[in-house]
Write a structure and sequence with these properties.
About 35% of the residues lie in helices and about 25% in strands. Strands 2-1-3-4-5-6 form a 6-stranded parallel beta sheet, sandwiched between helices. With about 425 residues, it is α/β, with parallel strands linked by helices. Bound molecules: 5'-deoxyadenosine. The site of 5'-deoxyadenosine has 12 residues, from strand 15.
Length: about 425
Amino acid sequence: MGTKKLYIETYGCQMNEYDTDRIKNALDAEPTDDPKSADIIIVNTCAIRDKADQKAFSSLGKFKSRKANDPNVIVGISGCVAQLYGDKLLKKIPHLDFVLGPRAIPKLPDIIARIESEKRRTVETSYDIEELFEIEPYHKEGKVTAFVSVQQGCNKRCTYCIVPTVRGDEVNRDLNDILRETNNLVSKGVREISFIGQTVNSWKKDGHKFGDLIRAAGEIENLDRIRFTTSYPRDITKKMIDAMKDVPQVCHHLHLPVQSGSDKVLSMMKRTYTRQWYVDTINRLKDAIPDITISTDIIIGFPGETDQDFQETMSLMREMEFESSYSFKFSPRPGTVAAEYSGEDIVDPQVASARLSELQAYQKEITETKNQSRVGKIEKVLVEGESRNDPEFLSGRTDHNRILNFKGPKDLVGKTVEVEVKEGLLNSLRGELVV
Ligand code: 5AD
């Protein structure tokens, strides 16, 4: 198996990126960027919105002729679309060899072996896989940032969301397991860890809460930065805020999806908080950590969203001035409560598009203004590598999660340096190394 070449395409969230790296390790194959030379081709999919679904299918379509020319190549689908549609996918996609749900990654070596020996197409989408966290992710040498999963699945029941259906109920990982994986990565040169979970701050295990996890990570030598995502507003506790404040390695940025500024819509989404509660929570965070920056997610056009509701979302955007935001048009997902709405509750797609554009234009202004306001400031940057757009520049992120590019010697990769910001762009900052 060691000499097999694996090509894997990844869609969706950080959890999927992490799962892709777990798949690489599970198979002990050589990763390749070239599907033509691969022995195993996998598309790791996202089901969060209909568009993401469609992307998965068109991605798989690309490998049809490869499979026709070389029947020994193994083509599989993994991730949330695999879980959602299960064996229907084998009928729909004749060149597919296996369907693997997100919880079944530890079973992958057996599945591949079986396909090779018995030439039988396989579906593995059961939830009760005991070795859930057993496979740790592949780590690319020299990479200074890494994800560590602290939980699988989700116990919230937001009415629009497919995640609990495809990733199952929340399962939290043992503290010692998390710390062992983190330590291991640090010993390979990682300097920044992002703990990941669907509602990461709801993590609790054997009497420990999320704040305890942060404090324990803060004790790890040579771990310079701790991030975590995605936080669920209602699970922000005083203990968590205190830990964020007390542990100096915790970065001062929080991604905190609000979804809507209208209490009516929040209630229909079953988000379990009100707009005021959200605002008060951010204020508590800012009292403890004055320079904290907040980013968010917004869903536009949830069924029943009136113009008034949308205006409330816009007024929240103005009140909060989020650092950045990801905003999406509501997409009905199979089996979710919100997919049941029909008739006049459905927001006209053109109205939803216009609302989305208005919100995104406003956000763009705010992000640009905020980035420009950093000019003249000295920022601490963990150098991650060459800039993607221009290898002349090094690239890293500030404590507040802004990308900052600057010129400097390559041996700074993995170090935290001071950079003076000279320019604020929409998606990044540009600066000069302070020497
Ligand atoms: N339609 C549109 N956006 C969605 N999200 C989750 N489910 C849906 C859906 N059905 C968005 C939410 C979430 C982000 C990851 O995706 O804003 O925070």
